[in-house]
Amino acid sequence: xxxxxxxxxxxxxxxxxxxxxxxxxxxxxxxxxxxxxxxxxxxxxxxxxxxxxxxxxxxxxxxxxxxxxxxxxxxxxxxxxxxxxxxxxxxxxxxxxxxxxxxxxxxxxxxxxxxxxxxxxxxxxxxxxxxxxxxxxxxxxxxxxxxxxxxxxxxxxxxxxxxxxxxxxxxxxxxxxxxxxxxxxxxxxxxxxxxxxxxxxxxxxxxxxxxxxxxxxxxxxxxxxxxxxxxxxxxxxxxxxxxxxxxxxxxxxx
Length: 254
Prior knowledge:
The protein is an all-alpha fold. It has one domain (41-253). It is built from nine helices and no strands. The chain has helices spanning 2-36, 38-48, 53-75, 84-122, 125-131, 136-174, 179-189, 192-218, 224-253. Helix 3 packs antiparallel against helix 4. The longest helix has 39 residues, at 84-122. The protein starts with a helix and ends with a helix. 41% of the residues are buried.
């Protein structure tokens, strides 16, 4: 039993160290790729961000609608229905917007990144680049990593805005909350620090989800089963890491 525990801990530490070195490589190459190969980065922003807009907007609208319904039903007990806009805005900007966007990003864009890079490895495309003296990390991995990091805060902002629209539709148009009170309470309750917290969370989640996606794809076993496992691990580990970071950032911000 102790031997198994030792092997597990040793493997975790070794993998964590290798992940940190991999992350440092990405950071070293990122400025040069961003300047010299800006078109590649924009293409990955489109793949990771623009192609995820539909699921982000649909989920954001209905999450905002649910917040409106739940907030109205609970605040009505205290005759504070006009504050439902403030409750929905704080929940979306500080918590639900970054977290749910990160989970959706990992499920849609993260799996695409991991499977794409894993398939390149399985078909020896990465090895062929190395044979031609082309660094696959600089040419393949870094643009996809930067595309995910840039896309995540933008998607979180879209999610929060569409969520507020959903809360407005449910509360003002369906439940009869005064539109002036709805937006005035929201403007008074949401502070700049709340927006900054949401931005910081979205950036951290974007870095974590994108890093795990490209790491799993680049280190996938070059078989069909290996690529499938790498894709599954991307979603699972990203969800766990996002929730852990969410707790840590929230605890620091309080």
